[in-house]
Amino acid sequence: MLHGERPNAWVSIFLPFALGYYLSYLLRTVNAVISPDLTSDLGLSAADLGLLTSAYFLTFGAVQIPLGIALDRYGPKRVEGALLLLAAIGAAAFAMGDSLGQLGLARGLIGLGVSACLMAGLKGFAMWYPPERQSSMTGYIMAAGAMGALTASAPVEALLPILGWRGIFWVIAVVAAAISLFIFVSLPNDSRHDGKETIAQAFRSVGHIFAAPAFLRFAGSAMFFTGGFMALQSLWAIPWLMNVNGMSLTRAASYLMVLNIGMLAGQLSIGMLGTRLNRRGVTPLNLIQVGFSMMLAVQICILMQWGPVMVMWFLLGVLSSVNAQAYIACASSFQKEAFGRVSTAINLMAFLGAFVVQWGLGLILDLLQGWDWTMVGSLKAAFVMLLGLQAVTLVPLLVKARRRVS
Fold this sequence. Notes:
Elements: H1 9-42, H2 46-62, H3 64-74, H4 76-96, H5 100-113, H6 117-128, H7 134-151, H8 154-186, H9 199-211, H10 213-243, H11 249-279, H12 284-304, H13 309-319, H14 325-331, H15 339-370, H16 375-398
Helix pairs in contact: 1-2, 1-6, 1-7, 1-8, 1-10, 2-5, 2-15, 3-4, 3-15, 4-5, 4-6, 4-8, 6-7, 7-11, 10-11, 10-15, 10-16, 11-13, 12-13, 12-14, 12-16, 14-15, 15-16
């Protein structure tokens, strides 16, 4: 642990993790902008597009539990460095793909490759920074992710006519390999931290977490608030803005950039103010309760087309910054030693939700349009269903929690 922060710690420790999470978020959201080109080049339906894009979330979420155990046993340097090489291979495979099956497998490999980028950063900060720095470091690495989402909006849209979507993924493959090398070279050496616990015991402890009411209290909102936001941000925001609000792709991409700027502003605000708010009695749970309630209200405004469109999407981005507080709020109900497994379990629920919402919205759109609904009507109906699920999962967060789990 860095009891006195080294002058080069920002470069040797924070920057490798920040670059990894930046790339992870860019890859999470880039399909929103390239979706029209993918659809026209490959003749994809809405369900095909949703399934293809959500393959990232499926593999990402599927490895969260073994990932948490691996981080505890082998450390963030080796785990994230190795996985980012898989992300580079996946990006290259995506650039060469010619069918839905090939692109789906490549996108799934990308999801696996970047699955450790946030959790490895949080684990590394716990190892190499003092406790009082944890809150701000978490806020700042989330801001790096927001920068990745920003890059995946208007900048990628501007590069599409020059490089095409295949060229963009070749560039991403090179960047992923370079970040992997940076991690191996820059980060301090890590070591095993598993003690005497066997892998079987580690997996059994995860089962107890999933069965705990304290975990289930947060699981639904992680799926449909955090996961639902990721599904909108990474794919369905662009079709919504183009069809419901009648925008061109260029203008819709600029509004997606506004959403991501809002997310960046929210994350930086939490990074700078989180410790002060906590000292005044404002807990991570309080931030979630207020943030999710306001997210629901803003999304209703977007659905009903109340208020300035740009302002509503900016506010949605700002409020989404409370999503990361679920890791801390849920883990606070468990023993400190279980933090890594609780946080990856919550992460699993978020990415499972993103997969379900992203693909599910595509299925609903195809179904309703098959019944002669318009695209606008289908989008609004699907969005209403999502908001209903969010409202239901908000209720447990507003009810008083049970006692701490041992």
